[in-house]
Structures are given as structure tokens and as C-alpha cells.
Amino acid sequence: MSLRSESNTEKYLDLGHTEAENHAKAQQKLYEKYVAETSSVTRRIDEFVKTNIIGFGWHYLKSRLGRRHPYQYYPANDDTGIYPLQPASQKDEVTIALLSDWANDTKESDAVAHMVARYVPDYTLHLGDIYFVGAPKEVEENFTAPHASWYYGKSGSLTLSGNHEMYSNGNAFFNHLLPAMYAMDGQLKRTQQAGFFCLENEYWRIIGLDTGYTSVGRPLLEVLFPPDCHLRPEQVGWLEEQVRLGDPSDRRGIIFLSHHPVISGFRKGYRKPAEQVAGILKQPGRPVIWFWGHEHRLIGYKFQEAASGLPVYGRCIGTGGMPVEMDLPPDSRDRDRIAFYDQRIKARVGRHDIGYNGFVMLTLKGSSMTASYRDLEDKPILSERWHVDISTGELSREPGEYADGLSIYSQ
């Protein structure tokens, strides 16, 4: 039996994206835990003041206003951050589970993780956001404690940073989470050294980008100068010199992963990373596949240009553990950009309709890559397949089966 008490999904509804609000939420979580463990009403009131006011102020000042953790990048310790895609057993395919916005330690996130474990994927990749503020305790209860439900793939388990990890200046992300992550390089187990990576074989390259480190600015100043999630120079240099992303003779299929969206019909798409990638790739019109989270919904966008002549098959998969949103973009022009959207209602919590949590399983077999989107009830929501022509770099997509109730705007 798990020693960890279940978190309450309701506390994640109406969750904002500001540092102060998420620090307050973290303190409220500590207070609720204390309330559950004490029967003294007087102490509960006293501890409410101490934990939520004094504690919030101390936590905010200590972690938010302190120095950001130094940026880590490749090469590091004889490691380039580029690893071979290798199955854990003798088979002709590689399986990769993608989860985003998963780490909130709820019964829903646990259920998603246990569902992933039943499929025994070779790799498990988290696309970022540890709630509420990416603190050491939150890393522990989601990933590193004996009772944590995160499934570690036998061939590798890697992570990206979201904005929530940086609400505590990235200290727990770099000091506690990265040391627990790894990728197999033949028989050598390499610990993840930085918040980005590349997995590759003769047909495909899966490139995880760090958009989290630059997603948070200084308090108050970021209101006037919103962060653009740009790729830092060290990461750009890695893409150019180690990954050799601009090599015109390399025509393998490219799958980008990031926490932040490069296309969005809801808040805003962060165009800067796509612009930087297009500048490195230097192949206008070269199609890529891009998965991201940040927004808590499952939505696929029509094949379109993300920035600077970079055409993208864009997929938002931020449904790992947070309450899933289903509202439509307010602007009809944004609605016209949608290819598919899971708007099935799973439950009503308060005044909110919430959708189905889930994850995406990628299966790479030769020149084909299949994405299978699965919900909390372990039902296939949608499948789609891409083929890459490694003589030209062209991608072709085949839509597959989809669940009843899934909103299909264009296949």
C-alpha cells in the first residue's frame, strides 16, 4: 500500500502560470497535509498562518528571488547528449512513451504512469512541468521516492524542463531530477547531464529542446518583458556542432520535443525556438514533427508553417496529470488551424468540465513512426503514422482510427 496520500485534483483547476500563484499553491499543499495529520483546531489555525503566510514568503524569497541554477549543457563529462535509439529486447521496433504536464502526484497521474508501465516502453520521456514549483519534495514524490509512480524505461528515461521547474530557479531539476534520468549507450548507462538530448537511429532523430530555462524572467520585470522561451547559445551551439542539424546530407525524419508550444490557438505560440531551429536547419520547406505540452489539452494542428519556412505537424499532449481543458479558441481563424481535438467530457468538477488524461506511445519501425494516443481508460483515442523518405527528407502522414467523440476538423 502506498504511504503517500492522494492529492486532490480540484486544487489544480484554475491553475495560473505566474510564479507567485504557484508558490502559494505549494504552501497550501503543505498546509493541507498538516491539517490531515492533526486534530488540534488551534494548531491548525496557527499553522495556517505560519505555513501559508510566513512559509510562502520564505519559500518565495529563498527559491524565486535567488540565483538561477547554472545552465548545464553538452558536451559534459565525455557525453555529447546524443544516444542511439535501441530496443531493450531483441525486436525490430523501438517504443517511446511521451508524457507532459504529468508530475502533480494525483491519482490520475498515478493511473497514467501505471498504464505506461503495462506497455513496458523502451523509453519514457517527460516533456516538463513538475507542480507546483518544481521543488525537491515535488521531484521526490513524483519521480525518485520508492513509492513514486514514474516508470523508467529500460533503454532510457529522460526529461525536459517546463516553466514550473524554473519557479524554484531550476535547482531541484538540475540537482535532483537529472541525476535520476539516463539513456543507455550500448551497455553504458549515461546519466542525463542537461535539459536537452537527442535520440537517433538510421531513420529518425528525436530531439528534446529546453524551452523551460528561458521561460521565466525576473519577478515583475517579466510582466513588462515576457520571456520568449528562446534556446540559449549553448543549446544552439550543440544543435549546430554536435547534432549537426544543418547537415544537408542528413535526411532522417526529425521529431522535436519541447515543453512550450510553437503553435497555439489559445494563449500564444512561442515562435522563437522554431525560428532558431529553422535558422540552424537551413532547409526551407523541410517538414518536421513537433510534440509539446504546457497547455493541458490534447490537440493536433493542421500541417502549417511554425516560423521562417519551417512546416510542422504540431501536437499538444499536455494531458499527463492535470485537469484536461476542452474549450475552443475564441478566434475562428485559430479554430481553422485545428486538425483534431479531444473534447470528450470525462467528469464535471465544480463548474468545470474536464477531459481524459493520457499519454502518447511512439513506435519506430524502420522508416515508419506511429503515434498512438491513449486515454486514462487505456482506450486508443487516435493513431497516425508517418513515413520518412531518407533520400529526400520528405514526410508523409497516414491518419488512422480515432475514438467516437473525438472532434475531427481535418484529416
CATH architectural group of the largest domain: 4-Layer Sandwich
Going by CATH, the homologous superfamily of the largest domain would be Metallo-dependent phosphatases
Order of helices and strands: HHEEHEHEHEEEEHHEHEEEEHEEEEEEEE
Instruction: Give the C-level CATH assignment of the largest domain.
Output: Alpha Beta
Q: What proportion of the residues is helical, as a percent range?
A: 10-25%
Poorly predicted residue ranges: 1-7, 38-53
Largest sheet: 10 strands, mixed
Classification by helices and strands: alpha/beta
How would you sum up this structure, described in words?
- The chain is an alpha/beta fold.
- It has two domains: 9-63; 71-408, 4-Layer Sandwich (Purple Acid Phosphatase, chain A, domain 2), CATH 3.60.21.
- Helices cover 24% and strands 26% of the residues.
- It is built from nine helices and 21 strands.
- The chain has helices spanning 19-37, 41-64, 107-119, 136-144, 171-177, 221-224, 233-241, 271-281, 332-335, and strands at 82-84, 94-99, 123-126, 156-159, 182-185, 188-191, 197-200, 204-208, 253-257, 288-292, 298-301, 304-307, 310-317, 338-341, 347-349, 352-354, 358-365, 368-375, 380-389, 394-402, 407-408.
- Strands 1, 7, 8, 9, 10, 11, 12, 13, 14 and 21 form a ten-stranded mixed beta sheet that branches. Strands 6-5-4-3-2-17-18-19-20 form a nine-stranded mixed beta sheet, with no helix packed on it. A two-stranded antiparallel ribbon has the order 15-16.
- Helix 8 links the parallel strand 9 (253-257) and strand 10 (288-292).
- Helix 1 (19-37) packs antiparallel against helix 2 (41-64).
- The chain is globular, with a radius of gyration of 21 Å.
